[in-house]
Amino acid sequence: MKQTLLLQICCATCGGYISSELIKEFSLTLYFCNPNLFPAKEWEKRLADVKALAAELQVALIIDKQDYENWKQTKAGLENEPEKGKRCVICYNERLAKTAQLARQKDFAHFGTTLTTSPYKDGETILSIGRKLQTELGLLGQAGVKFLDRDFKKDNGWQKAIAWSKEHNYYRQKFCGCEFSLIKN
Question: Distance (Å, rounded) from C-alpha 181 to C-alpha 174?
Fold first, then answer.
């Protein structure tokens, strides 16, 4: 029997190929937790594709509420940070923490994220946050929840993800998702 994995997914472009590979190894549940997405239409477009992906792969999908205003308030003063800067680190941490907590709550064996797929994200920072959360939240205790410590950019992961998303006709955005990354592009 496959172990369970709760995978935070930012979009079908980054997560489609990765998810199609991970279902060979895990009983996969996708977790759409992206309060950073702006405007609301961007959140809706990405969610529509993630729903289609979940249906295509026949995996469960958990959808977190969209709370952009709260997300934006917690980034006050960091609006001018560069991509991969302090604002992004806080955002990675928030999404991974919610994923880890939900994984523990729902008795998943593993939690992870597709965020390491993109070359526009700091993969090593994301992985270190996941490792730290695993330890801080005591996830290795009785619950046994482990962080899926993988940089999906390796072995041409980004290129494979792009090709897969094109083949499956998923929406390909041109920015990270938050309004600050949109302004800089």
Answer: 10
